[in-house]
């Protein structure tokens, strides 16, 4: 059921929601949260489609805020609110209200959204495009427990990551971080299968894909080893190579759907690492409403501390870079301390017979 309201108010929109629920025979409100989508007219359809698919797992009231640009100075001084109320099959398992703001009310979207929020329910704000530099200080972001952005949609994704690190507040998250959840799970599981120390890592992926930088920063922060960021033709992340004392561990995904996990001394295994749709990413973010401390730690590690040169190898990383990685990592492992010792022992063992022969 769809109800169109022209030059409306928040009170009329609430009455239309009640009317729509009664018309379809579900007067009770069974939604668990309010999802606010802040977008433009061009991206509204795709964002709303993803939210409706995610509502099958998380029934929610979806408020789509579209700021319309007034063409003439006279129109900019007039405030108008047009709404489109959808309930039933057209709104997934929840309710949808599309809000189009004109004139001066564009700068006061929070006052329009506030009366439409579900009482005593969490609020999540999602910016598919054109997200603010500081989501927590945005008027709409201040209403939410979770604020979802997507640096992949930015013009300069790597520079956007630096801005996100400077303005991070508990509750902020990024869909570029959500995209690498299967990769992080698979790499952690691979390291659990062997007893060895990691000495260097290489992350390979597209040039303008912030998920590659986030995965590299996560590995550098957790393993406390030098991480090199290299480029490929994609799609997305293509490979992660870890040099260990037991041999290389490689997770390679060339086609964007099926990956191969290679561990020294074990047969290669095929792993499903399909690139997920936006609806799956949003559904994953709605499962947890507490701050993501792991994302915060990886984000604050810093893109500038990664070795992004495609010509240098991880073994030729300078000593100052290694020292900087070791000092700044928040969750150091025992790998950096053991690996050099083992290498030194190996060198001593091979050179000792030669020295004895020379003395004799």
Protein described:
Mean pLDDT is 82; it is low at 309-360. The protein has 360 residues and is of the alpha/beta class. The chain is built from 12 helices and 14 strands. Helices cover 35% and strands 22% of the residues. Helix 8 (210-223) crosses helix 10 (293-301).
Q: Helical segment tally?
A: 12
Task: Kindly report the spatial arrangement of strands forming the biggest sheet.
Answer: 1-4-5-3-2-6-7-8
Share of β-strand residues: 15-25%
Q: List SSEs in N-to-C order.
A: EHEHEHEEHEEHEHHEHEEEEEHHHH
Distance between the first and last residues' Cα: 96 Å
Give a short account of the largest sheet. 8 strands, mixed
| Gyration radius from CA atoms, angstroms | 26 Å
Structural class category? alpha/beta
Shape: elongated
Mean pLDDT comes to 82
Number of strands: 14
Query: Uncertain spans, ≥5 residues at pLDDT below 50?
Result: 309-360
State the helical fraction. 25-40%
Which secondary structure elements does this structure contain, and how are they paired or packed?
Elements: E1 2-5, H1 10-23, E2 33-39, H2 44-54, E3 60-67, H3 73-76, E4 80-87, E5 95-102, H4 109-113, E6 123-126, E7 146-149, H5 157-166, E8 172-174, H6 175-178, H7 181-192, E9 198-205, H8 210-223, E10 227-231, E11 237-244, E12 249-252, E13 258-263, E14 269-272, H9 278-285, H10 293-301, H11 319-328, H12 335-359
Parallel strand pairs: 2-3, 2-6, 3-5, 6-7, 7-8, 9-10
Antiparallel strand pairs: 1-4, 4-5, 9-11, 11-12, 12-13, 13-14
Helix pairs in contact: 2-9, 8-10
